[in-house]
Design goal:
Strand order of the largest sheet: 3-2-1-4-5-6-7
Number of strands: 13
Largest sheet: 7 strands, parallel
Order of helices and strands: EHEEHEHEHHEEEHEHEHEHEHEHHH
Radius of gyration: 21 Å
Strand content: 15-25%
Helix content: 25-40%
C-alpha cells in the first residue's frame, strides 16, 4: 500500500522518543513492502538513507500548536502522492492528515500517544469551557470519530464511546537488532568502575532522575556504592547534578544521538526508569506512556528498575525482567538487590527474550500492517 505519514511536529533525525517512534514505524512499514512517504521536520543532519520517502515539512515557526496551519500544504502533498492510507500522529492542534485523507478518499490511521480526554483540573479544559462551545474538545473527538483506525498504548486516553472495534492497543518498541547485549562498538563515554546503573530521559520532573540521584547517595552511605550514567538533557538536569554532587563515579553525557544509544546501554548493568507519576498531572488518567527507554533497556539485556505503578507491572515483571519498587524511598533497595551479578544476569536475559518476543518495532509494525490491511476499502 501507498502510505502518507503526517508527523510534521517531529524532527527527523532526532533524539526524542517521538522522532525515534516515527522513524521506526516508517522504516518498519517500508520493510514490509509498503510505499511510505513521511512528512516530518528536518533535523540538523540529512534524513535517513533508507527505503522511506522523506518530505521536509515542519509546523510554522517550529511551533506544534500551529500544525493546523499546514492543512493546505498537507492536502497538496496528499493529492500528489495519492496514498491509500494516511497516518497522522495525533496532537490537539492537528488534524491536517485526517482532513487531507477526506479530500482524496484515503483511509485514516490516528496514532494517539497522549490523552485525547482532559485530566481533572486541566487548564486547557478550563479555557475550553470558557469558550462556551468547548471547541478543542469537540475537535479532538471529531478526529477520533473520523479515524478509521486508532493506534494507542491504552484506550483509557480516548473519548468515551470510541468503538473498541477500531482501536488497536499497541506498545512502542525497540530495535532489537541494534539494541543488544553484545554490541561491540565502544560506549560514547568512559564507563565508570563497578556496577553501573543507567538513566536515559528528558530530565523532566516526572522522569524522576532526581530520585535516582537520591538513591545512589543512600547506597553510598550504606557502603554499597553504585556508579551511574545519566543520558539526556532537560529542565531538571541542574537539580539532578546538584543532588549527585560529591558522589563518585557519576557520568552526565548530555543528549546523545539515538544511533549511539545501543553502545551506551550495552556498557551498563542496570536500566533505571524512576518515573514519578505524581509529578505530572495528566498521569492521573493512568500511566498511558509506552516507555521507549524500558523497551530499549530490555532489548539491551539490562534488568529494569521501575516503580510498581500504572501499567508498568504489565510491561516489566517484578523479579522476572527487573525489580519494581513501591515508593521513591525504596529505589535504593531495588538497586541494592541488583548488586548480585547472578540475579542481574538472570533478569537481563529474561528481559532480552521478552523484548524480542513482544516489544520489537518489527512486531509493532506487523500488528499495524495486519490492522491496516483489515480496514474496509
Amino acid at each position: 500500500m501507498r502510505i502518507l505519514y503526517a508527523a510534521i511536529d517531529q524532527v527527523i533525525p532526532g533524539t526524542t522518543g517521538g522522532s525515534v517512534h516515527v522513524t521506526a514505524v516508517a522504516e518498519g512499514l517500508a520493510a514490509l513492502g509498503h510505499d511510505v512517504h513521511v512528512l516530518a521536520a528536518p533535523g540538523s543532519s540529512p534524513f535517513p538513507d533508507d527505503h522511506v520517502h522523506w518530505i521536509a515539512m515542519g509546523p510554522p515557526l517550529g511551533m506544534k500548536e500551529l500544525r493546523w496551519a499546514r492543512s493546505r500544504a498537507v492536502r497538496q502533498v496528499a493529492k500528489l502522492v495519492q496514498p491509500e492510507i494516511i497516518i497522522e500522529r495525533y496532537y490537539n492542534f492537528g488534524g491536517e492528515g485526517i482532513l487531507a485523507a477526506r479530500s482524496i478518499g484515503a483511509r485514516t490511521v490516528l496514532e494517539v500517544n497522549a490523552p485525547v480526554i482532559d485530566y481533572p483540573g486541566s487548564p486547557k479544559a478550563l479555557l475550553d469551557r470558557a469558550l462556551v462551545a468547548e471547541p478543542m474538545r469537540r475537535w479532538r473527538e471529531q478526529l477520533c470519530r473520523r479515524a478509521d483506525l486508532i493506534v494507542t498504548p491504552t484506550a483509557a486516553i480516548l473519548p468515551a464511546g470510541t468503538p473498541r472495534s477500531k482501536v488497536l492497543e499497541l506498545e512502542w518498541g525497540a530495535d532489537t537488532e541494534r539494541f543488544r547485549p553484545d554490541v561491540t562498538e565502544p560506549a560514547p563515554f568512559a564507563r565508570p568502575p563497578g556496577t553501573v546503573a543507567l538513566f536515559a530521559g528528558a530530565f523532566r520532573k516526572w522522569h524522576g532522575a532526581i530520585h535516582l540521584a537520591a538513591a545512589l547517595r543512600t547506597l553510598h552511605q550504606r557502603g554499597k556504592p553504585v556508579s551511574a550514567v545519566f543520558v539526556g538533557d532537560g529542565p531538571e538536569l541542574p537539580a539532578v547534578r546538584a543532588a549527585a554532587e560529591g558522589l563518585p563515579n557519576m557520568v552526565f553525557t548530555g543528549p546523545l544521538p539515538h544511533d549511539r544509544m545501543p553502545a551506551a546501554l550495552a556498557s551498563a548493568d542496570i536500566g533505571v526508569a524512576p518515573f514519578d507519576l505524581a509529578a505530572h498531572a495528566p498521569l492521573t488518567l493512568g500511566f498511558y506512556w509506552s516507555p521507549l527507554k524500558i523497551f530499549e533497556y530490555m532489548s539491551a539485556g539490562l534488568p529494569v528498575v521501575a516503580p510498581r505503578a500504572g501499567r508498568l507491572p504489565d510491561l516489566v515483571g517484578d523479579s522476572q525482567e527487573g525489580v519494581l519498587y513501591d515508593s521513591p524511598e525504596a529505589l535504593a533497595d531495588a538497586l541494592e538487590r541488583l548488586l548480585d551479578p547472578t540475579l542481574r544476569q538472570r533478569l537481563g536475559h529474561a528481559a532480552r527474550e521478552r523484548a524480542v518476543r513482544e516489544y520489537s518495532w518489527s512486531a509493532h509494525c506487523r500488528a499495524l500492517d495486519r490492522a491496516m490491511r483489515g480496514l474496509p476499502s
